[in-house]
Amino acid sequence: MPDQPAPKLPPLPAKTPAPGDEHPWKEPARRTAWVAGIYCAVLAVALIFSYFQSRQVNPVDHPRLVALKAALVQKPTDENLKQQIRELDLELRAAYFRHLARVQRSGWLLLGGVLVLLPALHFATWRRRLPRPGKYVVRPDLFERDARLSRLAVTAVAVLGAGLAVWAVKSAHSDLDVVLAKQAAPAKAQISPAPAVDASFPSREEMARHWPRFRGPEGAGVSPYTNVPVRWDGESSEGILWKTPLPYGSPNSPVVWSNRVFMTGGNSGQREVFCVDADTGKLLWQRPVGKPGKRLPPEDEEGRFYATSTCATDGRRVFAIFETGDLAAFDFQGQPVWQKSLGKPDNQYGHSASLELYKNLLIVQWDQADEEAGKSVIYAFNTATGAEVWKTAPRPVGASWSTPVVASAGNRTLLVATGNPWLMTYDPDTGAEVWRAQVCHGEVTPSPIVAGGLVITANEELVATKPDGTGDVTKTHVLWKQLDGIPDICSPLSDGKYVYLLTSSGILTVYELATGKRQYEHELEMEFKASPALAAGKLYLFGENGVTILAAAGPKFQELGRNKLSDLVFATPALMEGRIYLRGRNQLYCLGQKAP
């Protein structure tokens, strides 16, 4: 039998797509989802890697920059160190901003990838929905209508999101371009680098020509000038170059450097530093310090004093401290340099000690609580950066209100500070204690002075202590003591031969410095809060009622004249060349004679 042809098998039926695979966008959407997913994953990994890389260019706490700044604190005049800091700071900032630019662009690109990925996943996994029970069984046409509206809503949200993303990218790009252009500019054109922190400080001779702190150079209350005004009259304006209203009636004293006068002020709600032009009296700027609080009603503020501590200046910056524990530095243009909080002190009357300066150190006597609490210390902060340079061991004294002084005594420089019950001295370079004497009592407010080679304190007793000891010198170096005429607020004054004491009730008592022998006692019949001052052999005694008594320095009382202002006076004035800057309760006065 011939071979029979094999019967043809019927062709296999074409593969019929499952009912759920019928959407025409499903396959393109699946491929798009794969590409977008890989794209997003790569960008996410890049962002994580960039985050860890950014820690190497952080300009805030980069280890090398921190080390250089620490070295500059020890060698503040080293120009090589300053240049290294400038260059490294510029390099780190440029790298940091480039990193920020990359992160922001990557973030927006990732967002764009996600916006593509999500709809692609939606269509790649598309399945025809089964008719839902309820209204769609009765009205199947409603299902298609609602599905169409849902798609329109999702599309509108996606378009809106994409538009916002494009706008944000464009805005961020513009800002970064400005920053990066500034950083990149030195590569295209020679531009001087940004100035580094001015770590210079004035010499002692330069400090002595100004009135940089409470009671002037070394806190002595002695002016080096011989042409300090001796006559003025508030009623006729004779001898008044200008007067200007003050923002606050606080009792802290003016400090003066060149043609700038600085003061602070405040009330129960806020605290400020302000600067006045010394030539015209114009208020140049005022800046807040610390966080403002809710102000008390005026009747509750009556009789209270705020901002009692006097500020200090090194000719580069002005420093201020307040009873809130806020400590701040501003440059002469009023720009903030640094600011910090020491915390509100445990002090029943509030912090009142003023600031002291030594080289590049700002010294803060921070006495609080009682002598057993161990809370009292003295800080030294770098004037340029605010960084803590040293801190004394806990001082065995309670809260005090006197101001420390750094002065030459016994062929060495000492930081002298008083607090109940100790007069203590320190090495101002390190904060190490040098010696102490148990000669202070009660609420210590008058500040110590160094005069005639002796340390003079007046806290319930007048004590002259020799400065060349070590350790506890209470029994070995106290030269003499006196108990009469001891002031409760005003600090002592000396011309090197006599010590002048002025009580708040107006009793002027004078002792011989070398022996402690009392010379005279004279009642002035007015009240005093300002400490006395000395210029050209004349005592300046500033009465609370605005009357200033001039008296001859020496062993006998001799009044030389009286000058009156119609203002209350609580602050100790600054005695400069040809001028006195006197702060009244309401106005700042510049006393002096007009040029002919």
Characterization of this structure:
- Strand 12 and strand 13 form a beta hairpin.
- The chain is an alpha+beta fold and about 600 residues long.
- Helix content is about 25%, strand content about 25%.
- Helix 3 runs antiparallel to helix 5.
- The strands form eight sheets. Strands 14-15-16-17-21 form a five-stranded mixed beta sheet, with no helix packed on it. Strands 1-33-32-31 form a four-stranded antiparallel beta sheet, with no helix packed on it. Strands 2-3-4-5 form a four-stranded antiparallel beta sheet, with no helix packed on it.
Output the keywords.
single chain, 596 residues, alpha+beta, 5-stranded mixed β-sheet, 7 helices, elongated
- Helix content bin: 25-40%
Q: Give the oligomer, counting copies of the same chain as homo and different chains as hetero.
A: single chain
The percent range for strand residues is 25-35%
**Low-confidence runs of at least 5 consecutive residues:** 171-194
Topology, please?
Elements: H1 26-54, H2 63-74, H3 79-124, H4 135-138, H5 140-188, H6 204-208, E1 240-245, E2 255-257, E3 260-266, E4 271-277, E5 283-288, H7 298-301, E6 312-313, E7 317-321, E8 326-331, E9 336-341, E10 356-358, E11 361-366, E12 377-382, E13 388-391, E14 405-409, E15 412-419, E16 422-426, E17 433-437, E18 449-451, E19 454-458, E20 462-465, E21 471-472, E22 478-482, E23 493-494, E24 498-502, E25 507-512, E26 518-523, E27 533-535, E28 538-542, E29 547-552, E30 559-564, E31 574-576, E32 579-583, E33 587-591
Helix pairs in contact: 1-3, 2-3, 3-5
